[in-house]
Amino acid sequence: MSLILAPLTEDDIPVICRLQELAFSSNAIHQAMHPPGTDYVSIMLERHSSSFRNNPAARYIKMVDPATNEIASFAKWVKRDGENDRKGGGVPGPAEQKVWPAGANAALLEEFYGSMDSKSAELMGNTPHYLLSTLATHPKYQGRGAASTLLDWGTKQADADGIPAYLEASPDGLRLYRSRGFEERGVLDMALEKYGGKGQYRMVLMLRPVREPKSQSS
Q1: I want to staple 88 with a disulfide (CB 3.0 to 4.6 A). Which of 57, 64, 111, 129 is the partner?
Q2: DSSP type of residue 167
């Protein structure tokens, strides 16, 4: 049975916070940022709840399994008008909040988000765009097209408004994003050994340029 696209409700927020933690649990930089015992879900609950209630530029959407009513995947898109902060709508991004989960690797979080904020600001400046702030899929629903549908939803909004779409890609997402027209515009390399992790981790800044509307044949 196909998954169904639907708007996210405030009652869904605790569920998506747990889903987000599970989806990112095998990610190397997430592991370094949030060692075992980190209170990740609580801080994400606070942030997503605040954004959902107070940020009119944020749009939360989900993919639902109609057989079980489970949320398979969700995305947070933010329409930035060039005057809002990095995460949109006047709601401070992680680097501005400087409030990290209990037990988190604060030094790594500070460097990562501070560096990413600087790079994204340099690339996008005050250009209006749609930002893919979060995209997470439950591991058991991988490969069923949930992430693709959520990504396509946002790029269609960007096309309709005549503005680009922007995201910051982990290695796992590069293939999908490239297939949807996102182009690599910069990288951020983090040496995780410096913070007790392993190896080097690369995030890729990606932009999908404005798409001209298709001409209507007469």
Answers
A1: 57
A2: E
**Cβ-contact 207, 127 below 8 angstroms:** no
Assess contact for 1 and 69: CB atoms under 8 A: no
Check if the beta carbon of residue 134 is closer than 8 Å to that of residue 88: no
C-alpha angle 61-64-68 in degrees, rounded to nearest 5:
155
> Which pLDDT belongs to residue 211?
86
Cα–Cα distance, 51 to 19 (Å, whole number): 17
Q: Are 196 and 32 in contact (CB under 8 A)?
A: yes
Q: Where are the beta strands (DSSP E) in 142-197?
A: 165-169, 183-191
Whether the CA torsion 94, 88, 163, 24 is positive or negative: it is: positive
Local structure of 26: helix, strand or coil = coil
Helix axes 13-24, 40-54, angle to 10 degrees: 130
| pTM for this prediction | 0.89
pLDDT for the residue 102:
86
* Residue carrying structure tokens 């190896």: 199
Separation of alpha carbons 197 and 31, rounded Å: 8
